[in-house]
From TrEMBL:
Residues 5-81 form the Carrier domain. Gene3D superfamilies: ACP-like. SUPFAM superfamilies: ACP-like (SSF47336). This is Carrier domain-containing protein. Pfam families: PP-binding. PROSITE patterns: CARRIER.
Length: 88
């Protein structure tokens, strides 16, 4: 089962590979803005998340969902994994 912590572990590892930041500086409360991610970093993140857990992140997701911290990003990803209820 994928939860916020497991998604965070994956996102954190990716950020540590992409950016020159200290491991302790990447927490659930870290703002995305403070990481200074560029467009290529976002593309890399999109590709990895799609490959590993089949969630598609589109730029509109950030604008429409008010995602500003890594916690909010991870919660958004976990929410996308929940099955949609089909009315009977």
């Amino acid at each position: 089962m994928t939860n916020v912590n497991s998604v965070f572990d994956m996102v954190r590892e990716l950020i540590l590979e992409l950016k020159d930041v200290e491991e302790n500086d990447v927490t659930l409360e870290t703002t995305i803005e403070s990481l200074s991610l560029d467009s290529l970093d976002f593309v890399e993140m999109q590709v990895v998340i799609k490959k590993k857990i089949s969630v598609v992140l589109v730029p509109e997701s950030f604008a429409n969902s008010n995602i500003s911290t890594l916690r909010q990003l991870c919660e958004f990803i976990v929410e996308q994994l929940k099955p949609v209820a089909v009315p009977v």
